[in-house]
Amino acid sequence: MQLRISATKTNLIKTKKMLSLTREGHQLLDEKRKILMNELAGVMESLEGLRKETDDRLAQAYAAMEKAVVRNGHGIVRSAGFAVRTRRDVDIVPKRMIGVTIPALETRVTDAPPYFGTFGVDGSLEEARVLFCRAMETMLATVEKRAVMVRIAREVQKTVRKVNALEKVHIPEYQQTVAAIADRLEEDARESFALLKIVKEKLALKH
Predict the structure, then answer these.
(1) Cβ(145)–Cβ(46) below 8 Å
(2) CATH architecture of 9-206
(3) Contact between residue 171 and residue 23 where contact means Cβ atoms under 8 Å apart
(4) pLDDT tens-place string over residues 111-139
(5) Model-level pTM?
């Protein structure tokens, strides 16, 4: 569908310029789409690795906790657990990447081990605590990476819609409009030439 504008040389020049700008915009957006897709693939791969690492660390931590319970007894381990005062404060800091605002987590850890000296437990409980802390690190990294994945995926969808709109709607509109105006101006030029020829012939006959 062409645009409804007057078939003038000025409008032809303007429409050609808009067509050129639209093509450039389409090219830039298509390049952005490719970059985002590559970035998304990398984030998804990293996320899968983090999930596996989190599962492995949690398995190690629970195994260490079971060992601590067997060695020290459930009641002692439960009582000793109340002594732990590890604190993690998490701030969400927005960052820009390829024109996309993504969340980054900044973690502050307040920790003062060892905690279990007065409970008469062996080192297995401290080992479990350390392993759970390590698992928490990868869990937070997983949360961050997943949020990044969601943001990039949304931006990919938006960019794809814009690329498709330019490719399937706006560029064809400008192309059809340029062609229609050019045809109309050419037709007007032929009519003017024919009319001018008739006028010249009539003037020649009078002389």
Answers:
(1) yes
(2) Orthogonal Bundle (1.10)
(3) yes
(4) 766 666 555 677 788 888 889 989 988 99
(5) 0.75
